[in-house]
């Protein structure tokens, strides 16, 4: 007779699955698991059965269990598919089962998916889409160079087949080049696409912007506005980008016109409203400021913009000479949203700039912001991180923690706690050795007799940041 073994039942289950008999496949694979609970392929088969039957949570759990049992290509690819699909739904704001969200945010779901794809791509080296997925997973983790290598490998595999997804892979490559500080390669990649999309066109405009080709960037945004921006929301956002470019090239008046056009679209871009308020503060135009503040009211509780809105409201009070009122407003905002890292960061900056005698309290606020940034690192953060410190660019790392540490070290230095500032600067150098701010702060906290000061000073001068290089050159 036929030997009843785990492998036999697994093969039978796979056969049933291929013929569309999901129930029989489930029963056969159960028998396989009964014969040998450690049979990895039996578990992978059950995951495929759950996926076919539409049980997404059970399927993701089974695939995740397979990653603990060992390396198997089908389960490795399956788990990565489910993890990235869940992250996509979270980014789009769609409803995601709480269990799946918990796996991604609290159980290192993205890291496990990345490891699974590495295993798969090491064994199956001609699957271009798998390399593309690996690139996306690595980029989400901030591993930009490894992500670029995976994306270029995907392009190499798909190029010969004239694949329908080739343009999407090229769009990913262009974005990665731009984030890695190579806008020339980014422009060349975007321009080689046969069918540009909205995302790739905006990426091309951003690459031109990073090259200081403001006119070319403006023209690309303009073509995007007329030909590719289908929703009113996108049109409003594109007009804000054009207003930013116009401010650099033609001055505030043209920028103000474009930003007004953005705010007249429904729904308006919140960034456009914030930009109009900033222009009003710069020109002391109280009418424009009041109009912008009135438009912001509807977004005051949106965690993406609440901290910026409060900071601008405080800036307006400062413009009117009401320092106590501005301070009170900032403190109220922290009490209203104590879980928000940007609120604590902005309070620290406000105290450091406007109330130097409270520098020690500013350091505590910055420390709190850094702690919240660490604990909330896996939460979704739509859009590029915007720093309040000049020179902290998007390098793929969690810059919110870096910025908090920079502010804390500065605040401690102002408060006279040189030893505490030095400890924080040392931590910065350990966590972010590529940031010139880390070494500049360490230099500022060094004693005159330190042997390492001259070497750190030379390093800051050669780091490429013009302002910090000039400061280090004149540092006693």
Radius of gyration: 27 Å
Specify the number of helices: 26
Ends distance = 90 Å
Average pLDDT: 86
- The number of strands is 0
Describe the protein's architecture and organization.
The structure is a single chain. This protein has 476 residues and is mostly helical. It is built from 26 helices and no strands. It has helices at 6-19, 22-35, 40-53, 56-69, 73-92, 98-106, 109-123, 128-140, 144-159, 166-179, 183-191, 198-210, 214-227, 232-249, 252-264, 270-283, 286-296, 306-319, 323-336, 341-354, 359-375, 399-415, 418-431, 436-445, 453-461, 466-473. α5 (73-92) crosses α7 (109-123), α10 runs antiparallel to α11 (183-191) and α25 (453-461) packs antiparallel against α26. The chain starts with 5 loop residues before the first helix and ends with a helix.
List the helices and strands and how they pair.
Elements: H1 6-19, H2 22-35, H3 40-53, H4 56-69, H5 73-92, H6 98-106, H7 109-123, H8 128-140, H9 144-159, H10 166-179, H11 183-191, H12 198-210, H13 214-227, H14 232-249, H15 252-264, H16 270-283, H17 286-296, H18 306-319, H19 323-336, H20 341-354, H21 359-375, H22 399-415, H23 418-431, H24 436-445, H25 453-461, H26 466-473
List keywords for this structure.
476 residues, globular, 74% helix, 0% strand, mainly alpha
Q: Can you describe this structure in just a few lines?
A:
This protein has helices spanning 6-19, 22-35, 40-53, 56-69, 73-92, 98-106, 109-123, 128-140, 144-159, 166-179, 183-191, 198-210, 214-227, 232-249, 252-264, 270-283, 286-296, 306-319, 323-336, 341-354, 359-375, 399-415, 418-431, 436-445, 453-461, 466-473.
């Amino acid at each position: 007779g036929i030997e009843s073994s785990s492998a036999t039942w697994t093969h039978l289950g796979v056969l049933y699955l291929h013929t569309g008999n999901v129930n029989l496949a489930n029963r056969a694979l159960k028998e396989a698991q009964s014969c040998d609970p450690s049979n990895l392929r039996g578990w992978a088969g059950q995951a495929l059965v759950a996926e076919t039957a539409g049980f997404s949570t059970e399927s993701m759990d089974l695939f995740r269990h397979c990653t603990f049992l060992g390396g198997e290509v089908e389960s490795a690819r399956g788990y990565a598919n489910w993890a990235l699909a869940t992250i996509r739904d979270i980014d789009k704001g769609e409803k995601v089962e709480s269990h799946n969200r918990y796996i991604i945010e609290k159980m290192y779901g993205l890291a496990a998916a990345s490891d699974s794809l590495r295993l798969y791509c090491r064994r199956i080296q001609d699957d271009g889409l798998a390399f593309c997925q690996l690139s996306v997973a690595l980029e989400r983790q901030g591993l930009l160079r490894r992500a670029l290598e995976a994306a270029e490998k995907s392009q190499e595999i798909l190029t010969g087949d004239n694949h329908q997804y080739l343009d999407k892979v090229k769009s990913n490559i262009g974005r990665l080049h731009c984030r890695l500080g190579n806008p020339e390669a980014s422009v060349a990649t975007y321009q080689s696409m046969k069918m540009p999309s909205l995302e790739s066109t905006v990426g091309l405009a951003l690459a031109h912007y990073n090259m200081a080709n403001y006119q070319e960037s403006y023209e690309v945004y303009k073509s995007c506005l007329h030909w590719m921006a289908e929703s009113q929301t996108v049109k409003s956002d594109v007009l804000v980008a054009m207003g930013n470019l116009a401010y650099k090239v033609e001055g505030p008046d043209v920028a103000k016109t474009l930003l007004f056009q953005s705010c007249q679209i429904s729904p308006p871009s919140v960034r456009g409203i914030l930009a109009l308020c900033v222009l009003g503060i710069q020109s002391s135009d109280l009418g424009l400021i009041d109009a912008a503040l009135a438009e912001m009211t509807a977004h005051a509780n949106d965690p993406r913009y609440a901290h910026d809105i409060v900071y601008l409201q405080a800036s307006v009070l400062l413009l009117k000479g009401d320092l106590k009122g501005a301070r009170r407003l900032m403190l109220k905002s922290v009490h209203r949203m104590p879980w928000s890292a940007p609120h604590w960061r902005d309070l620290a900056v406000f105290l450091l700039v406007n109330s130097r005698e409270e520098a020690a309290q500013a350091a505590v606020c910055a420390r709190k912001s850094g702690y919240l940034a660490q604990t909330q690192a896996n939460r979704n953060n739509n859009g590029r991180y915007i720093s309040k410190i000049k020179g902290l660019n998007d390098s793929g790392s969690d810059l919110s923690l870096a910025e908090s540490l920079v502010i804390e070290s500065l605040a401690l230095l102002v408060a006279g706690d040189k030893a505490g500032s030095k400890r924080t600067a040392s931590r910065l150098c350990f966590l972010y050795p590529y940031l010139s701010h880390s070494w500049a702060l360490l230099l500022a906290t060094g004693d005159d007799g330190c042997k390492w000061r001259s070497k750190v000073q030379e390093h800051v001068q050669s780091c490429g940041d013009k302002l910090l290089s000039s400061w280090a050159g004149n540092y006693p």
